[in-house]
Design a protein that fits this description.
Elements (H helix, E strand, L loop, with lengths): L1 H9 L23 E5 L15 H10 L4 E3 L5 E3 L2 E6 L5 E6 L13 H10 L10 H4 L2 E8 L2 E6 L6 H7 L18 E6 L3 E6 L12 E6 L3 H10 L4 E3 L5 H8 L4 E6 L4 E6 L9 H9 L3 H7 L5 E3 L23 H10 L14 E8 L4 H13 L3 E8 L1 H9 L5 E6 L7 H7 L8 H12 L4 H15 L8 H11 L3 H16 L12 H12 L3 H18 L2 E7 L1 E6 L2 E2 L16 E2 L1
Parallel strand pairs: 1-10, 1-11, 15-16, 15-17
Antiparallel strand pairs: 2-3, 4-5, 5-7, 6-7, 8-9, 9-10, 11-19, 12-19, 13-17, 13-18, 14-18, 20-21
Length: 584
């Protein structure tokens, strides 16, 4: 009953009763809040519904805390937990919580709060988009108030990263607003405004500002005017055009903070395309890009040129020995000739081939598409630019309905999990939903007959071979066919996990069995030096085969009123720094 009550108040985006005129709700008046402008309404204040959008994810970072966090080298370190251990087979994770961490409801955090958060994700009523990932957790044990033990059905190598993305939420019966332990707590929430106040009992120290007000202002011009007039104090990575930022930098009341970032701009290439399936063509397109020109003009210096690897330089897994891809038109032409695509008229207007280039229709993306079109034409490659609003854009990426696309990847490359996310082959058959449904039925089967029926359904689907060849996967499927009972169920779920728990970001449909084996070896290794050697090998392989062309690390750009000081954002772009800002 407790679970049902809390779920009933936190489904979807939580709108406070205050926005509906509730007389018992608190109301903030006066100008003592630091006001932050965001571009869109947060889709959910409930962290268990996942980072549905970037605004929701940023708000979660200042309202809730996670068991672990990433440090300056993007390594997982204790946060709400004071220590943690992981079994060698990645099936058992034990966390010792910090004592005396105060929740927004005024009591001490306990292991029961952690258990509630992650067990409730499985509830059909919540409809959490991360339920499938967390379904790998079999039980959550709480032997004492400060100890939490996750026992997993199968190896869960991504658990620590998932725990960062989905922080701990506190049960708050009787309240329509989710509570946490973070530096700010939610007072009111409406479609256009979220009001927060400092959590005086925050375990890392109370914030220096008493209140935050997050205002939804979709229009760039309106956000600019509000900053200039004082109606807004901060805009964080708000998507202003570079010339707008330059103009605001001359305003006597405003400041612009341009800090290094880790989010990586890149072009993804559909490796199943008739032309782009040849790695020489993909390398040629990389050589035909003048990144420095784009950085200097289109994004006005708000990016740092990257090497040929996806990891940011701050990461412990970064291979700093790799060279940058040179801008070399002669080499691009040579590779295109060698791949069987000669230029029909030398340097004339004739084209070797034409590909589609898909972007969103917002921000600098259209301008980047135009300059890519101009640059690739110099080596005889035509570009049909296609621009879509964000929902359609991501739908097309998810179904590989593109030749090439441009995007800035946010957060994915902060840990080596990105290799599994972006390059590991997944199940790409059109019957993926049927496979997922059969696996879910198998996980919850209460008897052998139901389990056998689910396994039969999965076997029929997997026998269609709608996936990149994998000796390990084929071995698991063959092994399952020779077993029965609980053993058969476990092996079949392990096969399903191998095929579906990775590769969600492999929009390019990149398939390299040897690279996939390296990703698994690195995941399973307990030796940091061995992992680093494998990750460097992975980065070199990807650089050679070029399923993605890396461009630059997008800077963190903050425009603020000069009354705001101590702006120290880290490369991740997280809102954690708001705990330390001051306002005069």
């Amino acid at each position: 009953m407790r679970l049902h009550a809390i779920l009933a108040t936190t489904l979807a985006f939580v709108l406070s009763a205050c926005s509906l005129g509730c007389s018992s709700c608190s109301s903030i008046t006066g100008g003592d809040a630091v006001v932050i402008a965001v571009e869109s309404t947060p889709k959910s204040l409930d962290p268990r519904l996942g980072s549905i959008d970037s605004v929701s994810a940023r708000l979660h970072q200042i309202v809730f805390d996670s068991l672990v966090r990433k440090n300056e080298r993007f390594e997982f370190v204790p946060h709400l937990a004071e220590s943690f251990t992981q079994s060698e087979d990645a099936r058992t994770f034990t966390f010792k919580l910090r004592a005396g961490v105060k929740t927004h409801t005024g009591r001490d955090l306990t292991s029961s709060d952690v258990k509630f958060t992650y067990e409730s994700i499985a509830s059909p009523e919540l409809k959490s988009p991360v339920a499938a990932a967390f379904a790998r957790i079999a039980t959550i044990e709480t032997p004492d108030p400060l100890t939490v033990i996750f026992q997993c059905r199968e190896p869960y190598y991504q658990l620590l990263g998932d725990l960062v993305a989905i922080p701990v939420m506190i049960e708050s019966p009787g309240s329509a607003l989710p509570a946490g332990t973070g530096p700010f707590r939610i007072l009111e929430a409406g479609e256009q405004t979220v009001e927060l106040e400092a959590h005086a009992g925050y375990f890392l120290g109370a914030p220096k500002v008493a209140r935050l007000r997050v205002r939804v202002i979709p229009d760039n011009n309106t956000r600019e005017l509000e900053l200039k007039s004082g109606g807004v104090d901060l805009a964080i990575n708000s998507g202003f055009a570079p010339d707008t930022v330059a103009k605001m930098q001359t305003d006597a009341d405003l400041q612009v903070v341009n800090a290094p970032g880790s989010n990586i701009a890149h072009i993804g290439l559909n490796v199943n395309d008739e032309v782009l399936r040849d790695a020489r063509v993909r390398r040629a397109l990389a050589h035909a890009l003048n990144r420095e020109q784009v950085i200097a003009t289109v994004i006005a210096g708000t990016g740092a040129r990257c090497r040929r690897n996806i990891m940011p330089p701050e990461s412990w897994a970064y291979d700093g020995e790799m060279a940058r891809t040179t801008f070399n038109l002669d080499e691009a032409k040579r590779l295109l000739d060698e791949s069987g695509h000669p230029d029909p008229d030398g340097d004339g207007p004739g084209l070797r081939f034409t590909i589609g280039f898909t972007t969103t229709n917002s921000g600098t993306a259209p301008a980047i598409a135009q300059i890519v079109q101009e640059q690739w034409k110099l080596v005889g490659v035509g570009v049909n630019s296609e621009q879509f609003e964000r929902v359609t854009f991501f739908d097309r990426l998810g179904t590989a309905n593109f030749d090439a696309y441009y995007i800035v990847s946010v957060g994915a490359n902060q840990t080596p999990d990105v290799f599994a996310w972006a390059y590991f082959p997944s199940y790409w058959g059109t019957d993926r939903k049927d496979l997922d449904a059969s696996a879910a039925k198998l996980r919850t089967a209460a008897d052998d007959a139901t389990a056998d029926a689910a396994i039969g359904e999965m076997t029929v689907i997997l026998d269609r071979k709608g996936y990149c060849p994998s000796a390990e996967l084929d071995g698991l499927i063959a092994k399952a066919k020779a077993l029965s009972g609980a053993e058969k169920r476990g092996v079949m779920l392990a096969a399903y996990d191998l095929l579906t728990s990775r590769g969600a970001g492999n929009r390019m449909r990149y398939c390299n069995p040897a690279l996939a084996e390296d990703i698994l070896k690195a995941e399973r290794s307990a030796n940091r030096d061995e992992q680093l050697a494998i990750y460097k090998r992975i980065q070199k392989t990807i650089a050679a085969e070029q399923p993605q062309i890396y461009l630059w690390y997008a800077a963190n750009v903050i425009v603020a009123r000069k009354r705001i000081t101590n702006i120290n954002i880290d490369p991740s772009g997280a809102w954690y720094f708001l705990q330390g800002i001051s306002a005069s």
